[in-house]
Structure formats: structure tokens, C-alpha cells
Amino acid sequence: MDDGNDHKRHHCCFQEWMHLQEADLDELLRAKAVAAASSTGSTAELRALVAKNVRHYQDYTERRRVLAREDPPSFFSPKWCSCFENSFLWMAGCRPSLAIHLLYTLTGAEMESHLDEFLRGLTTDVGELSAGQLALVNDLHLRTMREEETLGSRMASLQEEMADKPLVPLARNRGEVSLGAVQGAMDGYEGFLAGILEDADALRIKTLKEILGILSPTQAVDYLAAAKQLHLAVHEWGSQRESTRGSI
């Protein structure tokens, strides 16, 4: 398949996702304003809006999964994102535990050092999170970090194995090996890479769903709005920075 067409389809998928996030953000902010202005806001409507946003994210990752099967490496350092934005990437996307740190920040609970005393009842308020919610978030944080470490170990093993067996013998006999042998080794690596990307996306979705399950509908809407604002801002700032440097 033509690499140029692949890149265009990958870029188009990302751009459509960013445009959808802009639209979803507007809807979330409107819902947040309505909820703040009225004590009779519909919890069911807020839950439906949260579920809609999760579906959009799942749809995007499914489209990405299909495209990544064709060219996995392009998603680990995407040309359609700025270098600044790419510096934040973990396994071709946001680090799942970053979603939890965002929650700590939003609720004024970026305070792991004070977590124990809060759970022991020595403090009574951490933003809008209750003690029970914070305990659940802390448990999720620990589990997520363990799963991140597992994926990181898989990635390291894949890279080490490629340097150990397929690539070293081929490189030492570069003038004699066939193009088919080289392509076969690279295809094998990319296949495993695609699998890691899929598992990383699954962890990202799982973490998001658990966060939203811990929060009230109003909190979930606020959280999703902030997460989208952060993603859109980082993308915009990175693009502006590269445009400025390119014009110098």
C-alpha cells in the first residue's frame, strides 16, 4: 500500500478525532454550565453525555487499531503531532496514570504524601472527592502503575530480542541477506508492536472508565472537559511552537 496514502489516512483519522473532541468539549462545557446554574439538572442526561464521550474514545481507538496494523511505528512517533506533543507520548498515547494525576490536580488532591493521614481521618476535605472516592482512586493508581510497568517490560523485551536475534545476524551479513529476510524481521517486530499498542489503548480506556465510575456524573463531566482542554491545548501549543520556529 502507498506510504503517502497511509500517512494521509492516519492523519485524517487523528484530525477527525481532534475535531470531535472540540465538539464534545463544547457540549460538556454547556452541560457543566447548566448543572451549575440549576440544582434540578438531570443526572441521567449527564450520565448519557459521559457515556457518549467514552463511546467516541472507543470508536477512535478501534479505528486507530485497524490503521496501526498497517504501519505500527508511525503511531509511536506520529508526524501529525508536534515534537512537543510527541514528547508526552507513552506507548503511542497518553500514559494511563497521567489521567489519574489530572484527577488529583483538578480536585486539589495532588498530595500522595498526605494520602495516609486523609484516609485515617486526620483531614476532612480534599477538593470534591470524598474519602471513599480518594481511596478508590489511590487503589486504581497503584494497579495502573503496575500494568504500565508490565507493558514497559514487554516493550523493553521486544527491543532487546530484536537486537539479539533477528537484526544482529542480518546486519553482520548485510551485503548477503535478501530483502525478504529483512522485511520478514521488520514485519515480525511491527506485529508485536501493534499488539503492544492495542494493549496500551485497552489500558487507557480501562483506566478512564474506572475513573469515571468513581466520580459522580457532575464530577465526570468536569473531568472529561478538563482532559479534553489539556489535550487540545498541548496539540495547539506544540503546533504553534513549531510554526514559530519554522518561520525563523
Question: How would you describe this protein?
Answer:
This protein has 10 helices and no strands. With 248 residues, the chain is mostly helical. The protein has one domain. Helix 5 runs parallel beside helix 9. The longest helix has 36 residues. The chain is elongated and about 75 Å long. It starts with a helix and ends with a helix. About 2% of the residues have low confidence. InterPro entries: Seed_Dev/Stress_Resp_Reg, TGA_domain. GO terms for molecular function: sequence-specific DNA binding. Pfam families: DOG1.
Beta fraction of the residues?
under 5%
- For the record, give the distance between the C-alpha atoms at the N and C termini, rounded to a whole number: 36 Å
Average the pLDDT over all residues and give the rounded result: 87
Q: What about the largest sheet?
A: none
Structural class: mainly alpha
Secondary structure: helix percent: over 70%
Count of folded domains: 1
**What's the number of helices?**
10
Protein name: DOG1 domain-containing protein
InterPro entries: Seed_Dev/Stress_Resp_Reg, TGA_domain
GO molecular function, one term: sequence-specific DNA binding
Organism: Colocasia esculenta
What's the short story on this structure?
This protein is mainly alpha-helical and 248 residues long.
Give descriptors for this structure:
248 residues; mainly alpha; 10 helices; 77% helix; 0% strand; elongated
Which helices and strands occur, and which strands form pairs?
Layout: H1 3-37, H2 43-68, H3 73-76, H4 83-86, H5 96-106, H6 115-119, H7 131-164, H8 167-172, H9 179-214, H10 217-246
Helix pairs in contact: 1-2, 1-10, 2-9, 2-10, 5-9, 7-9
